[in-house]
Write a structure and sequence with these properties.
Largest sheet: none
CATH architecture of the largest domain: Orthogonal Bundle
Distance between the termini: 40 Å
CATH class of the largest domain: Mainly Alpha
CATH superfamily of the largest domain: RNA polymerase sigma factor, region 2, helix turn helix motif
Structural class: mainly alpha
Helix content: over 70%
Number of domains: 2
Shape: globular
Number of helices: 8
Order of helices and strands: HHHHHHHH
Length: 196
């Protein structure tokens, strides 16, 4: 069984145990996804404190709605939909749009593990900061597509289901978002991606 299939199987098993009232399984599920949910919230609301509050609210909603997620294999997209909706609800209540600040949260580094070559780690961190700065300049639709597909790793069909739009629309939005992001990165650093 591949690592993706094994991970999906582990998550499905945790979800089943949570439905049976297993507190340790719930704790493991929260630990497994807390940084991912925080990251999604942060990218949408652009405020650390709001993102922390939202992450807690998301897990409360997930716990309360666990019975509504009938397909254990679809838990992750369902949970991300709950998180996205929770963030949108909060933004609507506040009557605010996400702040246009730099989207790099120094407390949240999804993919940097700090091991290996320090020069490569610095280069990776520099690239990450550049990409997050470029994300700030994208349209809301494009930023959301990049966030869901590239950062959260959802499949196009899962995004279509989450946003309740046709798969073809998701494909075209995803393609446009990648082009828009590439242009924004090059506008910020014209030398980015060129070999020396």
């Amino acid at each position: 069984m591949g690592s993706t299939a094994r991970e999906a199987s582990e998550i499905a098993a945790l979800v089943r145990r949570c439905r049976q009232g297993d507190a340790l399984a719930w704790e493991a599920l929260v630990r497994r996804f807390q940084s991912r949910i925080y990251g999604l919230a942060y990218h949408l609301v652009r405020d650390r404190e709001e993102a922390r509050d939202l992450a807690q609210e998301v897990f409360v909603r997930v716990w309360e709605g666990l019975a509504r997620c009938r397909d254990d294999d679809a838990f992750v997209p369902w949970m991300l939909r709950v998180a996205r909706n929770c963030c949108i609800d909060r933004l609507r209540r506040l009557g605010a749009r996400p702040r246009a600040t730099q989207a790099v949260d120094p407390e949240h580094h999804d993919r940097c593990d700090g091991r290996g070559d320090p020069h490569a780690a610095l280069e990776t961190e520099t690239d990450r900061k550049l990409i997050y700065r470029a994300l700030d300049s994208l349209s809301t639709t494009s930023r959301e597509m990049i966030l869901l597909k590239e950062i959260q790793g959802l499949k196009l069909v899962e995004i279509a289901d989450m946003l309740a739009i046709p798969l073809g629309t998701v494909k075209s939005r995803s393609g446009r978002a990648r082009v828009e992001l590439a242009r924004a990165v090059v506008a910020l650093d014209p030398s980015y991606g060129r070999s020396e």
